[in-house]
Sequence to fold (382 residues):
Amino acid sequence: MYQTNESLWTDEHRIFRQTVRSFLAAEVEPHIDEWAEQHAVPRGFWRKAAEAGLLGVDVPEEYGGPGGDFLHRLVIAEEIGYSPAGAVMAPSLIADGTCEILYRSANEEQRRKYLPAMVRGELLFGLAITEPDSGSDVSATRTVAQREGDEYVITGAKTYISQASVADAFMVVARTGEAPGAKGLSMIVVEADRPGFRRGRALKKMGVVASNTGEIAFDEVRVPVSNLLGEEGRGMALCLGGVNMDRITWPLIAHAASTRALEETIAFVKNRKAFGQTIFDFQNTQFRLAEMKTELAVGRAFLDDVIRDYQANGQLDTLKCAMAKMWLPEMEARIMDMCVQLHGGAGYMEEYPISRFYTAARLHRIFAGTAEIMRLIVSRSL
Ligand SMILES: Cc1cc2nc3c(=O)[nH]c(=O)nc-3n(C[C@H](O)[C@H](O)[C@H](O)COP(=O)(O)OP(=O)(O)OC[C@H]3O[C@@H](n4cnc5c(N)ncnc54)[C@H](O)[C@@H]3O)c2cc1C
Fold:
């Protein structure tokens, strides 16, 4: 069981943690091999997650949400990270972060239109920022939304988009003005049934293989101007408004997954024998395990500090979140690598959870802001 600092959570969060755990054990973990084979989670997954109260946890009740808080979101992150399910499909459940962006960016009418259906798991949104020629550098976005009367005409292509093959609608970052760089960017809702909208390939990945990732394209897709989220030219600001949330969520997932990997490894090495003793009996093994346990304790102390800041001030500290997003996935990389090593050949085999934890971990240094971009942010404070 993933142990966190109990003083961080209220009874409500503790009960919610049990709900998440039970949901993962009953509705997700038994299916992960099948979903990994299919390279997708079935549509019914989101309905079931909704019934369990796991979607839009921090959406207020007036928009159909359970009215939880940001910490409920972190509980989900920890539990999905700790579960072997997370190693094959974490981005699917975490993609529910689109509820947070929509709530924060939308006007009253848009909130009422989209949020209740999202919380019920009936309306699935994707977030479409990355393009074939722009990832970290969002200001190089080429997708254009040309205003014609009371419509935008959208043309462009996006890639590496989570839920690309299955989402009903996308929040799309597109260029609406002449202003160069990020200033000309806006965020617009594009429903997948609009003429000219096209889904491209579902991309095959090395890890989190049950989480759909793919391409979408817009060929003069017309949407009403009322699909604009926030104001024109504020697209980058809307993206940035949620980055701290991602930059604590993914480090928590990295920590929880590393914790599970270490536990799996300790159990494995205590059982496996070589040269007349268990692998655990070698001093080298014990030293490596001791190092990993120490790194986990140090990393968790920092995460707790970031969470306590939020509890005290109602907001996340940008610098600390960047540090967490830089350091925790790199700690995870060291731990996953050593855990595979201590498993020997078994660590390379899919039937041992560690092999999937290893490939999933590789993602954590890349998306939601690469480790290099985090270094840039931290460097600005020097
Ligand atoms: C599984 C998966 C799911 C994803 N889901 C989504 C999604 O739902 N929506 C979405 O919009 N995107 C999504 N992405 C895309 C993801 O956000 C990008 O891959 C990420 O932002 C990095 O961009 P890039 O791939 O273009 O790499 P690049 O930006 O081309 O970077 C390549 C390398 O150069 C480095 N680099 C770039 N700029 C600098 C710099 N200034 N200084 C030093 N080094 C630098 C990077 O750190 C990296 O190491 C997903 C990606 C994956 C793998």
The pocket of flavin-adenine dinucleotide is lined by residues 91, 126-130, 135-136, 160-162, 205, 213, 363, 366-367, 370, 372-373, 376 (CB under 6 Å). The beta strands are 125-128, 144-148, 151-162, 169-175, 185-191, 197-202, 213-224, 228-229, 273-274, 277-278.
